[in-house]
Design brief:
The protein has about 675 residues and is of the alpha/beta class. It has an 8-stranded parallel β-sheet with strand order 8-14-15-16-19-20-21-22. Strands 3-2-7-23-24-25 form a 6-stranded mixed β-sheet, with no helix packed on it. A 5-stranded mixed β-sheet has the order 9-10-11-13-12. It has a domain at about 105-235: Diaminopimelate Epimerase, Chain A, domain 1, CATH 3.10.310. The N and C termini lie far apart (about 70 Å). It has 23 helices and 25 strands. Helix 14 (about 430-445) packs parallel to helix 15 (about 455-465) and helix 20 (about 570-580) runs antiparallel to helix 21 (about 600-605).
């Protein structure tokens, strides 16, 4: 009875008080209200709103125009979006920011050319940039997979680069960051573990550099043919991967590139600790209009500087101190991730004689295709495959040791004895190191970001990350690229709560490129005509939907300057949805079952990207309380996809960029 009476008395008091209650307090006054828009929020329900009210650097309200206007004050700035699409700022979850600006140097700009044309181009560069004899000429953005057609005068990369100059060590850095080409002077500078230059040669590849043998292309006599990959490049001691110039000029230019593309958050996917102060200077200047997470790495350019098992505790200590320093000094930069390269790349060189195998770590041995025909005339194709278990291959050892016997072997069998090699590619580090490094860094509170291309590398990465889960689930571990992923790992990625960051622009059919990959994995009985037939590679290449279906998170990263310096986010968004030839010259779709919906593609660049960067509570969606990082576009991506015009997404222009609540870009 007393309980009921008390309740009645409280109810009566409530009615009395309610009857003379004060009016509700006024809503906070917004600094800016964007209205009359198509506001794609990327919230949990994927709501479409009309208006967004900002106060300071935060989003105050998201909803209808009528409700947003309640936040209007005398000084509120009103911006009519005129129906334009507004969405969260883009997150490039795997980019190399120091490479997105074109420096004033000799640069091949990913332009394919035959070896004869390459010779003339390089000679012109030497003259134009007045490179003194004996000085390195390092040329970035070399199209390693397309072009480089040999001829009678220049049968190898080495012969072409030797013709370009016999006075300059020359290194062409591939536009993938993993391949290179060198002339004889450069090859002669390869250093052993003591730092002594003894050079790459037939003899040293069989001795001191036997561990690098799979990373150095050779000719029919077993001598280096000029092609290099991965750690073999670092042994030459050439200048670093990025040709930087003056940081005072470079850093604002980097900020401009990201701002004009609508990119408001990035992960520096291989961050040299020495460069972080350049970003701090940019931040202090007020020109850094993007948030950055640094994935720290040691020895990115120099294999000699890479840590071993015994060095791990010291690296953890160094990186922890750097993380704490950035946390104290910076509002925009976090150094709370680390990078590991698990393997290399999956492209071989079908134009080399013998063809150079890919080096990405794969579960099944690479096939040994035999190529014939002429690339320029369009007759180049797969003509057969080497049976590595044949009697001929059992006798290949002697032919490999003696060039004369090698020539006889080719004449009798139609392929080079080196093509009897059985290889599953290579890991960039011992699996024991990968496991130990991931475990130590995870326990120290870092997110671990792993480069893994081949299916074996992805398995090694998942093994390591599943054993050493992130301490904070809001800052998950991640894998980059994942070009070939076994179905088992597609499931395990979801089970482990991992993020996979794809460069979606690469999800396209490209005949010259695909000839450098697929024939080494699939046996193409019909040659190039069978390239895109169903098979293990086609069913598991860039399996974005497979990752999502199994509970994993798919993010997006341009990997610029790999392939292109331009981060091209809208090209990536388009290809995530279409996976088709962007020129529409063929109806082939690369693994059509893995095409994303436009909602999934946008999520990869927004909320999932924020998750990959460990800042999902801060950015990635347009919701009250989050940072006001917003962009306005000249066309509606959702409507384009819905009406079958997804191929036009790549034409999108960014009209406005709001960063931390302030407009930093406005275009008419």
């Amino acid at each position: 009875m007393m309980r009921n009476l008390g309740g009645a008395l409280l109810l009566a008091l409530g009615l009395v008080v309610g009857g003379c209650a004060e009016p509700e307090p006024k809503l906070p006054v917004a600094d800016t209200i964007y209205h009359n828009g198509y506001v794609y929020t990327v919230d949990g329900a994927r709501h479409i709103a009309q208006a967004v009210a900002l106060r300071g650097d935060r989003i105050e309200f998201v909803g209808s125009d009528a409700d947003a206007f309640a936040y209007k004050g005398a000084d509120t700035r009103m911006v009519n979006l005129e129906g334009r699409m507004m969405m969260p700022g883009l997150h490039d979850a795997h980019v190399h920011p120091l490479g997105v600006v074109q420096p004033d140097i000799c640069d091949l700009a990913s332009e394919p050319m035959p070896l004869a044309a390459l010779v003339g181009f390089l000679q012109e560069c030497i003259e134009r940039y007045r490179i003194a004899p004996g000085e390195w000429m390092v040329v970035p953005q070399w199209s390693f997979a397309i072009g480089n057609d040999p001829d009678a005068q220049y049968p190898t990369l080495r012969s072409a680069l030797d013709a370009a100059s016999s006075e300059h060590p020359i290194l062409l850095r591939g536009n993938d960051g993993h391949h290179a080409a060198a002339n004889s002077l450069a090859l002669a500078r390869a250093r052993d573990t003591s730092g002594q230059a003894i050079g790459f040669s037939r003899e040293t590849l069989a001795g001191v550099f036997a561990g690098q043998r799979e990373l150095v292309g050779v000719d029919g006599d077993g001598e280096p043919s000029g092609g290099l990959t991965e750690g073999a490049i670092g042994l030459l001691g050439a200048p670093g991967f990025f040709q930087i110039g003056d940081p005072a000029t470079l850093m604002p230019a980097i900020a401009t590139v990201f701002r004009e593309q609508g990119i408001t958050s990035i992960m520096d996917a291989a961050s040299d600790p020495a460069h972080l102060e350049w970003f701090r200077t940019l931040e202090d200047s007020g020109q850094m209009h993007f948030r950055m997470r640094a994935a720290l790495i040691k020895g990115f350019d120099d294999i000699m500087a890479r840590p071993g098992l015994d060095d791990i505790p010291a690296v953890v200590t160094e990186f922890t101190a750097l993380r704490e320093k950035m946390a104290r000094e910076s509002k925009l930069i976090r150094a709370d991730a680390v990078k590991i390269f698990v393997d290399g790349v999956i492209e071989g060189n079908p134009l080399a004689v013998p063809p150079t195998l890919p080096n990405a770590a794969v579960l099944e041995p690479y096939r040994q295709p035999i190529f014939g025909g002429d690339p320029e005339s369009g007759t180049f194709d797969v003509t057969g495959y080497v049976d590595t278990g044949s009697v001929a291959c059992q006798q290949a050892g002697a032919a490999l040791a003696d060039p004369k016997l090698g020539a006889q072997f080719v004449a009798e069998n139609g392929f080079h004895p080196a093509q009897c090699t059985v290889s599953r590619g290579v890991l960039e580090a011992d699996e024991a190191f990968i496991d130990a490094y991931a475990d130590a860094m995870s326990k120290a509170g870092f997110s671990v970001h792993m480069h893994a291309i081949g299916d074996r590398a992805v398995r090694v990465a998942v093994n390591a990350l599943a054993r050493s889960p992130a301490i904070d689930p809001a800052r998950p571990h991640s894998i980059a690229h994942a070009q070939l992923v076994h179905p088992d790992e597609q499931k395990r990625i979801g089970d482990a709560g991992l993020v996979v960051t794809f460069t979606h622009a690469w999800s396209e059919p490209n005949l010259p490129y695909d000839m450098s990959v697929i024939p080494f994995i699939e046996q193409l009985e019909g040659g190039a005509a069978d390239l895109y037939k169903p098979g293990y590679y086609m069913d598991n290449v860039y399996p974005t939907r497979g990752i999502i279906a199994n509970g994993g998170t798919v993010a997006a990263g341009s990997d610029a300057p790999v392939d292109q310096r331009d981060p091209r986010p809208f090209v990536n968004l388009e290809q995530a949805v279409t996976r088709a030839d962007p020129e529409r010259a063929t109806e082939v779709v690369l693994n059509a079952a893995q095409r994303l919906s436009i909602d999934e593609a946008i999520a990869a660049y927004t909320i999932n990207g924020a998750r990959a960067l460990g800042q999902e509570a801060l950015t990635g969606s347009i919701e009250a309380g989050k940072k006001a990082d917003l962009i306005v576009l000249d066309q509606n991506l959702v409507q384009l996809a819905e009406r079958g015009d997804a191929w036009r997404i790549s034409d999108t222009k960014v009209l406005r960029v709001v960063f931390d609540g302030k407009e930093v870009l406005v275009r008419p």
